[in-house]
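Quick review question:
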């Protein structure tokens, strides 16, 4: 029993040149926390998700390791945050993947702190579930030789498959 039983072989994907607004629309419509980003040949580039959006809404001083935790001095009304979402929405998905793509090309994707964990075809089911547990994120299944995205193991789809009878 391998990862192929749990993965979605036709996941929604993003391209690095698509806007963050488009990515947000897909994330909301599909109710996913992250989506894979691929190049025109279908090679995996990275993952883009709600964490990137949240990071872009916060002051930089709060998102760096050991950063600020008290943001009471920052204006935080809904109108300002909506304007910030519109502003961020004009940027490209690729702007949030710098530093991630090169690390993702390595074995396991663990070369950089922000590189996504990668699943390989044939990975046993329990190892797949362990990585889901440890990373707390949906995971791409990537062919090691070509770098092509083969599918994604999404949390909700895993539980849907496991809850089915038969």
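Suggested answer, residue by residue:
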């Amino acid at each position: 029993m391998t990862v192929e039983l749990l993965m979605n072989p036709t996941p929604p994907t993003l391209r690095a040149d698509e806007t963050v607004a488009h990515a947000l629309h897909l994330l909301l419509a599909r109710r996913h926390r992250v989506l894979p980003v691929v190049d025109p040949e279908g090679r995996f580039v990275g993952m883009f998700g709600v964490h990137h959006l949240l990071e872009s809404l916060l002051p930089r001083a709060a998102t760096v390791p050991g950063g600020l935790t008290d943001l009471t001095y920052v204006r935080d009304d809904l109108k300002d945050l909506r304007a910030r979402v519109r502003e961020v929405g004009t940027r490209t998905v690729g702007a949030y993947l710098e530093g991630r793509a090169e690390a993702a090309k390595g074995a396991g994707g663990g070369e950089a702190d922000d590189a996504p964990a990668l699943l390989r075809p044939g990975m046993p089911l329990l190892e797949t579930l362990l990585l889901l547990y440890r990373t707390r994120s949906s995971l791409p299944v990537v062919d090691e030789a070509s770098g092509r995205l083969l599918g994604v193991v999404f949390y909700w789809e895993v539980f849907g498959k496991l809850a089915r009878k038969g």
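Why it works: Residues 99-112 have pLDDT under 50 and may be disordered. Helices lie at 20-30, 50-57, 60-63, 78-89, 101-104, 125-135, 155-163.
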